[in-house]
């Protein structure tokens, strides 16, 4: 293989694929990126056996061929080369690949491309297209609630499924860690009806989120009940799905919360951030006291002291004291898009509903804490 490629093109493609490669690998080939040069294109592929990303970049191919070299090392080399550099990759020297850029020379150890695994997606019967911006919004508004508890593996991702039918069909994304739940939805794209409910793993979700950086792009999604494939331009991501059953989340969304609180989102966010400064890393509890169109936020930490703040709010139900994890409150507030937020409460021991005022595309459920 002998190929010449601009640094910017190679760096962009490497940036998309190298993140898949784990820093520590017991299987040496999984630490490498597969390079394949043909038809004026350099194709790059990386995998961890559960997730695979392929990207292609324009290049001058003098001699077609393929090889594998250490992914993170190649990325670091290309990243440190000067802007505008022309990079030559040449495998004619035997066991090493020569990388040349101006006066800079590297020789990278190669492993045979025949050893590189292929994540065969098999038959993907459901296929649809949707704006990258719409798919990214679903992910952005729910990703923070994905569980990191490995024992409940079926919560370690976002649950995508279609609800409703015909013109009313909606593509819904749900994530929960047992303490909070995030639900967001968008009009279901043509072809999505009838799709199986699938749980996309946390790592895959993070990579998809980064690949949807161009809001004007179109995301092409193909899936079965075991695999998902996403194509955006020249980039193709293929991933296994979580083999498990997502819990019936509708059961934890309260229906009878009749105490309505409306407040300025930005003021609330700043107040929570201020008073939580002295909260303990373990507790993080903030108490909200509601009465007479005002809210008092209070934190009490026996080790460091106490803090309180007061905000004007719109609240005309009976007085209420309720506690929440301050970090969870801030996570949810960061996803709200309107100036005003609406809280629907019941009592100090029941879950609270939070959403943008007047918007129904995203809904958050937060369990209270004892304070």
TrEMBL record:
Residue ranges constituting the DNA polymerase III beta sliding clamp central domain according to the UniProt record = 130-248
Q: What is its main location?
A: cytoplasm
InterPro entries reported for this sequence: DNA_clamp_sf, DNA_polIII_beta, DNA_polIII_beta_C, DNA_polIII_beta_cen, DNA_polIII_beta_N
Q: Name one GO cellular component term.
A: cytoplasm
Report the GO molecular function annotations.
3'-5' exonuclease activity; DNA binding; DNA-directed DNA polymerase activity
The record's annotation in SUPFAM superfamilies points to:
DNA clamp (SSF55979)
Q: Which residues form the DNA polymerase III beta sliding clamp N-terminal domain?
A: 1-119
Subcellular location field: Cytoplasm
> Which segments constitute the DNA polymerase III beta sliding clamp C-terminal domain?
251-370
Protein's GO biological process: DNA strand elongation involved in DNA replication
Q: Give a single Pfam family match.
A: DNA_pol3_beta_2
Keyword list, A-Z: Cytoplasm, DNA replication, DNA-binding, DNA-directed DNA polymerase, Nucleotidyltransferase, Transferase
Q: What does this protein do?
A: Confers DNA tethering and processivity to DNA polymerases and other proteins. Acts as a clamp, forming a ring around DNA (a reaction catalyzed by the clamp-loading complex) which diffuses in an ATP-independent manner freely and bidirectionally along dsDNA. Initially characterized for its ability to contact the catalytic subunit of DNA polymerase III (Pol III), a complex, multichain enzyme responsible for most of the replicative synthesis in bacteria; Pol III exhibits 3'-5' exonuclease proofreading activity.
The entry assigns this protein to a family as follows: Belongs to the beta sliding clamp family.
Name of the protein described by the UniProt record? Beta sliding clamp
